[in-house]
Amino acid sequence: MVICLMQSIWLGKGIMGEDKYLLSSVNNTLEILDLLSMHDALGVAEISKILKMGKSSVFKMLYTLEKKEYVQKTPDAKYMLGIKFAHYGSIVLDRQNEFSFIKPYLRKLRDRHNETAHLSVLDRDYNIIFIDKEAPSAAMQMSSRRGAKLPAYCAAMGKVLLAGIKEGELEKVLRSLELKKKTENTITDPDLLIKELEKVRIQGYAIDAEESEIGLVCYAAPIIDIHHNTVAAISISGPSGRMKQNSEYFIDSVRETALEISKAMGYIE
Asked: What is d(CA 262, CA 269) in angstroms, rounded to the nearest whole number?
């Protein structure tokens, strides 16, 4: 956070902390797109109320977005994200060449257990972004998709990635987050979460014990690069009964796979 005037000037911000280079109309339009990404569909009045924008301005932005096919209007006059984002999303994900070599490892992990295998990274807002997913033939699997986000604090891969943050910065990060309950098992106490992440750092893996989704358990391990930085995480997830019954087997397997990937990136134990 910017805490002094000199830092504000260096970042191109005014005394009040506002970014002088930020174009408000574009920023507001992007706020609408961000909001629509979290809902199936919303009307003009709903968007106006949530974002505290005038209805006229919201309508004009939505009209423009609809003309450019970034949103589409439903029969009941609500708006949802357009199919164009699926096109852009696939392009972005396909260009993640740094991690493209990991796919065979994920498939191997999936095939070994017939459970869902994931690869994710941490974004700047401390959510995990699902970069890749290898789904099994099993009927029950995690309701995730490539490009989707999930708060890091309540996910096994998220805990692994958060545990990779430098100790001096981690507490500041956690106390800046709004820790909401996803299920009754979600850890929302910053102090308890810090202790949990210290444990993750020591043992080299993390567990999502139905903290993000009831009925699903996930085990994750870090991908570490040549500089010993945690750059990504992989996981294996499935129904809580099967996952808990064979927890040691799953944990050993995901740690072993993560280590293989890390060594392929130049990591030396």
From this structure: 10
